[in-house]
């Protein structure tokens, strides 16, 4: 059984080019025994072409994308990495913030080592987004206070 199985697989790979191309035209997903069926409909339309031969008959096999024309297999992960939405820094009301934005402070903020607080409504220009330090993910300069780190949750985009 095992020997027969291996032999068949080897034959299929070697016979690939012409036969696979003809088959692929009619049947985008030649289904090897252990593969789940490819997703139908809209999903299969958005699969990228093969990076190796540009074949358009890409199908999914678990976490991999497979090209039936050249038997190239690659990970689909790279494609879905295009949307870093989850890492977006948002202000107190959910606006996505970007470098260079102007924001206002939505509540009085006590500043360590200073008698004065940054007052609600203070405008902060040209913010810079940084990796959070204790939850402070905005680097900026506040008039009268100098360089500051703020939490995005205490500002509102203007
Ligand atoms: Zn290919």
UniProtKB/TrEMBL annotation:
Ranges for domain Protein YjdM N-terminal: 47-75
InterPro entries per record: YjdM (IPR004624), YjdM_C (IPR013988), YjdM_N (IPR013987)
Residue span, Protein YjdM C-terminal domain: 89-158
Entry-linked NCBIfam families: phnA (TIGR00686)
Membership in a protein family: Belongs to the YjdM family.
Protein name: Alkylphosphonate uptake protein
The species this protein was found in: Paeniglutamicibacter gangotriensis Lz1y
Native organism taxonomy: Bacteria, Bacillati, Actinomycetota, Actinomycetes, Micrococcales
Name of the gene encoding the protein in the UniProt record: phnA
């Amino acid at each position: 059984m095992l020997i027969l199985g291996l032999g068949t697989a080897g034959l299929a790979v070697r016979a690939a080019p012409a036969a696979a191309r003809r088959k692929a035209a009619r049947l985008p997903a030649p289904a090897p025994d252990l593969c789940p069926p490819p997703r139908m409909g809209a999903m299969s339309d958005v699969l990228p072409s093969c990076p190796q031969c540009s074949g358009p008959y890409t199908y999914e096999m678990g976490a991999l994308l497979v090209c039936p024309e050249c038997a190239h297999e690659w990970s689909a992960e790279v494609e879905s990495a295009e949307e870093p939405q989850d890492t977006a820094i948002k202000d107190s009301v959910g606006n996505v913030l970007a470098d260079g934005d102007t924001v206002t402070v939505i509540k009085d903020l006590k500043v360590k080592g200073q008698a004065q607080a940054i007052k609600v409504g203070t405008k902060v220009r040209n913010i810079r987004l940084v990796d959070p330090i204790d939850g402070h993910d905005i680097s900026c300069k506040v008039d009268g206070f100098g360089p500051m780190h703020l939490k995005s949750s205490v500002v509102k985009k203007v």
